[in-house]
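Schema walk-through. Below, the input block comes first and the output block second. Nothing else is stored per chain. Lengths vary across the set, and this one has 540 residues.
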Amino acid sequence: MKNLPQGSYNSALETVRNLKEKFGKSWNAISPESAARMATQNRFRTGLDIAKYTASIMRKDMADYDADSSQYTQSLGCWHGFVAQQKMIAVKKHNKTTDKKYLYLSGWMVAALRSEFGPLPDQSMHEKTAVAGLIEEIYDFLRQADAIELNDLFRRLEAGEDVQDQIDNFETHIVPIIADIDAGFGNEEATYLLAKKMIQAGACAIQIENQVSDAKQCGHQDGKVTVPHEDFIAKLNAVRYAFLELGVEDGVIVARTDSEGAGLTQKLPVSQEPGDLASQYLDFVECEEVSLDQVTNNEVLLKRDGKLVRPVRLANGLYKFREGTNIDRVVLDCVTSLQNGADLLWIETPTPHVGQIAAMVNRVKEVVPNAKLVYNNSPSFNWTLNFRTQVYDAMVEAGEDVSGYDRENLMDAKYDGSELCNRADEKIRTFQSDGAREAGIFHHLITLPTYHTTALHMNDLAEGYFGEKGMLAYVKGVQRQEIRKGVSCVKHQRMAGSDLGDDHKTFFSGDNALKAGGSKNTSNQFDSKATEEEVATATV
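--- output ---
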């Protein structure tokens, strides 16, 4: 994903030189070299530039996966631009590339961490503009990561180092975001308007779910209410029109179904002819056979298999689906979405079980052979317990001795390090590659990892800092680890743009620039030979 082809700097340099010649002496203070450097450090001018660029990346990655299922993609959910920036800097450092690595924007985290109402549950109660705002913020931070790294390279070039090839072939931190639009925040017009804002902010992929917008629940909670297919298709269309209007022809739509865990519907669609989508949806509704003399005024009746039936309706007006229809509903949802404009699927499941996911996806593939899944490797699952249980059951089926384990207490720490634990951990380690190979999972994501890591790290720091360790808790547990591991923000002034700003001031003011990077800048304490060697070792 090298987006800075050789010659981009020279092209910008020539452009500014021509402009200087055009505007004459009034531009004498403008340095073509400085202007070209700044232009090179800010390749993406708008969110739409980003959306178009990243959409093409996703389309290529989807084709790569179709050819080879080992070429799956991954992302982590981020709730702040800085978190996303540090993630992608770390990805580049450890993997030497951002290829096949995305970002995920979770509606759950927007609700819990970004709303002006304060922390909220995942029920679409937060401001819809907060979603697009977070996308814009993330890309601002990623663009800054580009500018800072390139600025360092230009400084090294000016100091005589041969880094021109690194500049010419610089790989951007800009990667695709799969952005959660929940259930669309209203009717299809509301969905279209919000989708436009998200795309203009840079989103190339929008994930939308088939729940009722004003009754939306987190996919891992009870009380979910789904909509008829016709309603969901209208919202898929709304998102596609938004992409097309803004010129993002490769825009990706991820259609999520919550039907596996949803037992209710708010609306009974109108069937126009036998066997149509509305009719298939109505067939899933739980009904009881009645005669006319059993029916009271204002009740809703259906004809099913030549009989008069009454849909089971709750006191709140919602209708129930028949027990045991959830998987059939999932499959129909997926096939219908793919046949009506969706590019990728998302199936919410109760547990992370490759076999169970594959059973659903393979049924979809019977109709749409290239069906691909975005899968939520959710922190809502107890991964340890789920996989220990799976291994325990497999051991029983294979006739192995499980007398040393209590199936009802497999989370007990006494099993850590046991044969069962080691097998379960290995299944967790290979879950993503297994799911990509066996269950059609193109993209693996963790929705809320940085929510949990923030809480965990703050717990550990607070325990030591406010306890007996005092300042050593921070120095040993944070700063020394940053130095040893080469974490970029150990020099937080540089990461916030101080060095970049100093160079800009020099461009603007020359020798009159008041710069922060002088001898009294305490960040220089991190420039010792030992520190540089440790960082170099950590990044090799």
